[in-house]
Design brief:
13 helices; Arc Repressor Mutant, subunit A; 8 strands; alpha+beta; Beta-Lactamase
Length: 376
């Protein structure tokens, strides 16, 4: 336990309070002094402001942000993230170049609707000094009154404070591809000046910058996907099925067996797809279709005719496409020396089409090769 040593001469060592003691050469406040009470109050305020934010909870919310499939999902994931940073409002504005001369300008946020309508109606974005400064630097821009110099900017400051946006920070984000964006976090309560250098305000500065990069990446991913789908060629259901099986490594013959169409039909559909994508390879067309999101539904269930999955058809199965019917002739296969006379009645047991010729003799049928030899 520390021992309180009164300063020599009875003079206080600091002008903060008369009840300041020293421990060695370091002065500190007595637990009953006014200086200690003020310092303890600031410390409790800082701890209370950041008690709901931990690195683990913040990371969990970031993972939910990247799992969003559309802009509405990103907006919903931003609500708990802003709450963790002790901010009530957020607003994201993006500028993404698209293939060709297109540009995507996504907007999302939870600002008051009346203020959003007023901001767009009066075109405050053209006179907003925060956006102008964020376009020229990478560090966060705090909404300080010193930035609002022009009469239009001062009017903007008064209007946004009246709408409940008294304090805010804007984080600029730039990517090498030319895309840019800004994430603004605002609150109706201005932070205490004594807490701006450290404590919850410093946490907002650092964590908000990381949040801006994650939001920009999530929105950019969604914009790219939607833009690709908008410019994707239109495929017929049969063409999409053929591409799905090409992506799984099937050949034209195997795809024909799976879809119960001819091999020439599969080649016809794949050539049509390659013309639509302007490529010379079916695998390149399948890759582009996957990038466009046209194969997201996945291929159909593998049927019993899939040569890569199913077992060989049973010889006793009458519905097998590889087995002839019980009334079919063994000479239906192409043979250069098939006898002209009709063969004897075939037995009831069916023979697989790809069975060796020895099985014909086994079942009591005449061997066509023997007749050919006799005729020669």
């Amino acid at each position: 336990m520390r021992r309180y040593v009164a300063p020599a001469g009875g003079e206080p060592s600091t002008p903060c309070a008369p009840n300041v003691a020293t421990c060695g050469d370091t002065p500190y406040a007595h637990p009953l002094s006014a200086c200690y009470k003020r310092t303890s109050s600031l410390h409790r305020h800082a701890m209370r402001a950041t008690r709901c934010t931990t690195p683990r909870s913040f990371t969990d919310h970031l993972s939910a942000l990247h799992a969003a499939s559309d802009v509405d999902g990103v907006r919903a994931a931003l609500v708990p993230l802003c709450r963790a940073l002790r901010q009530r409002y957020f607003s994201y504005r993006g500028h993404f170049p698209l293939p060709g001369d297109g540009v995507a300008l996504p907007r999302l946020g939870n600002l008051p609707r009346t203020w959003e309508a007023q901001y767009e109606r009066r075109r405050y974005a053209a006179v907003d000094p925060v956006l102008a400064l964020a376009a020229r630097q990478l560090t966060p821009v705090e909404w300080t009154p010193a930035l609002y110099v022009s009469p239009q900017a001062r009017e903007l400051l008064r209007e946004q404070r009246a709408a409940g946006l008294r304090a805010g920070i804007t984080y600029p984000v730039f990517t090498p591809s030319g895309a840019s964006g800004t994430l603004s976090l605002s609150s109706p309560h201005a932070p205490a000046r004594r807490l701006r250098a450290s404590g919850p305000h410093a946490w907002v500065l650092h964590a908000g910058a990381m949040l801006a990069m994650h939001v920009h990446e999530a929105v950019w991913r969604i914009v790219q996907r939607d833009a690709l789908r908008a410019h994707a060629p239109v495929l017929t259901p049969r063409e999409r099925e053929c591409l799905q099986w090409v992506a799984r490594g099937k050949t034209s013959w195997e795809i024909g067996r799976i879809l119960t169409i001819s091999e020439h039909g599969v080649v016809f559909h794949l050539r049509s797809v390659m013309r639509k994508f302007n490529v010379s390879s079916r695998h390149r067309a399948a890759r582009l279709a996957s990038d466009y999101g046209l194969l997201d539904d996945g291929p159909a269930t593998v049927s019993s005719h899939d040569p890569g999955r199913s077992s060989p058809p049973s010889p006793s199965s009458p519905s097998s496409p590889s087995s002839p019917s019980s009334s079919s002739s063994p000479h239906s296969r192409s043979s250069p020396c098939a006898p002209s006379a009709a063969p004897p009645e075939a037995p009831s047991m069916q023979v697989q089409a790809l069975a060796p010729p020895l099985s014909l003799v086994t079942f009591g049928w005449p061997d066509p090769r023997a007749s050919c030899t006799a005729s020669t």
